[in-house]
Amino acid sequence: MTMQRRIIKSLVVGLLTLVLLWLAFSMLAAGQPMWAVGVLALGGSALYVYASARTLAGRYLFPGVAGMLLFVAFPLLYTMQIGFTNYSSTHLLTEARSRAYLLEQGRFDEAKTYDYTLHSEGEAFRLLLQQREQRFISQPLTLKVSIDKPVALQPLAADAPSPSAALPLRELLRQRDALMALKLTLPDGTLLHYAGVREFAPFHPQWQAGSDGSLSERAAGNVYRPNRDTGFFEDGAGNRLQPGFQVGVGFSNYTRMLLDADFRGPFVSIFIWTVMLAGLTVLFTTLIGMTLAVLLNWEALRFRTLYRTLLFLPYAIPGFISILVFKGLFNQNFGEINAILDAVFGIRPDWFADPLLARTMILIVNTWLGYPYIMVLCTGLIKSIPADLYEASAIAGAKPLTNFFRITAPLIVRPLTPLLISAFAFNFNNFVLIALLTDGRPDYLNTKLPAGTTDILVSYTYRIAFTDAGANFGLAAAISTLIFFMVALMSLLNLKLTKSKD
């Protein structure tokens, strides 16, 4: 039985090894060597850990380590790598793929277009081409198999019968992929390409590749050479071909944040606002949450449980729902907040158009969403304070404020500090709040890249990468890397404070 198990295990491992090698070689053949190496390393490690008797303990650790490498380390390193490139909507391809795309560009000779019909002959097909009185026919073709060489056509007399009835349009469309890959040769050597659902025609490429990697325009003779500083094929006059290609730009995306005056201004303002939003939110939520926790801890207060439940509701409701509700409440023309302000003070603030009011609105909403969390934390911490301290304080005649500043605050501030740092880090990247409430608006004027006065770093990065800034993935990746290191520093501070508490 043991021998049978070993044989079965060896067969399974061998089969999985073959599958792994096939995947790696497929990726290598597709021009993705890094992916091939990654798949081979990860798969090989898994096979070794789970097939070897000496790595029993590693079988429990491997899923977590592999998941961390695959879903944390790899995206981080990939993002950092993009930050050193010009990757954007105009530089999506590699140089080789950009050259290949341009070499595929050209035009069909409409004056020499041939209509075609497809005729079945058993499991094979024949192509019949016709142009006025000229008719040409192919040998039987098996379209299920890719045909790499051009197919030679033979003349067919005008009065000769067709081999069989022509297939209808529906059948032609089923064979479209195979027909598009075909190249046909006329008796005079003319090469025909697929030009449409019913046509083949000669194809005249627009560009010709040079031995030095350049591209020559066949019609005008202009030569475009790859400029690996800008990521474009350029001629001597500076004219560029689209699409561009990816190149390394070093630290230019990072230096742009500091040295480009047109970019530095909005970026610094957004950075300061991001820190202010996170810091003020933590401050206000702590003040309100701690105050409510102390008040609700007063035993003489009636209906404390009801008050605590009602005050916790903002945290129980999903944040995106509350944000959208507040967006309606702050509406200038129809919102309830402006209706009350108009009735009492005769004013209707434009919350979404004025930068200061928009930021104030964001702080109000974020404080409303965050104070229940602090209130619950402080309530639990206050419950852990020994009652003897308050009894001794009462005997000494201390007032409530004295109890708070001499007993309550000092005893809860240390365990609360790491949680406040976590809240700061969360609000530092609070993308949902900005995206749903203001979408970063109102915008700064006369900027190279669209930037909003209520944008924080993460929403600004999103706009640069995916919306109205030309999909500048390289710059967005550089900003994302900066955000990562800032949050990492906060996490290290959090761990240090937690350790010091222990």
Plain-language structure description:
- There is one protein chain.
- This protein has helices at 2-29, 33-51, 58-82, 95-103, 169-174, 176-180, 252-259, 261-296, 304-316, 319-329, 336-345, 355-383, 387-395, 400-428, 431-437, 457-466, 473-501, and strands at 106-108, 114-121, 124-131, 134-138, 151-155, 183-185, 191-196, 199-205, 207-209, 215-217, 223-227, 232-234, 240-241.
- The protein is 56% helix and 12% strand.
- The protein starts with a helix and ends with a helix.
- A hairpin with a 2-residue loop joins strand 7 (191-196) and strand 8 (199-205).
- The strands form two sheets. Strands 2-3-4-5-6-7-8 form a seven-stranded mixed barrel. A five-stranded antiparallel sheet has the order 9-10-11-12-13, with helices on one face.
- Helix 8 (261-296) packs parallel to helix 12 (355-383) and helix 14 (400-428) runs antiparallel to helix 17 (473-501).
- The protein is built from 17 helices and 13 strands.
- It has three domains: 2-82, Methane Monooxygenase Hydroxylase, Chain G, domain 1; 106-205, Beta Barrel (Periplasmic binding protein-like II); 256-501, MetI-like fold, CATH 1.10.3720.10.
- With 502 residues, the protein is an alpha+beta fold.
Write a brief structural summary.
The chain is of the alpha+beta class and 502 residues long.
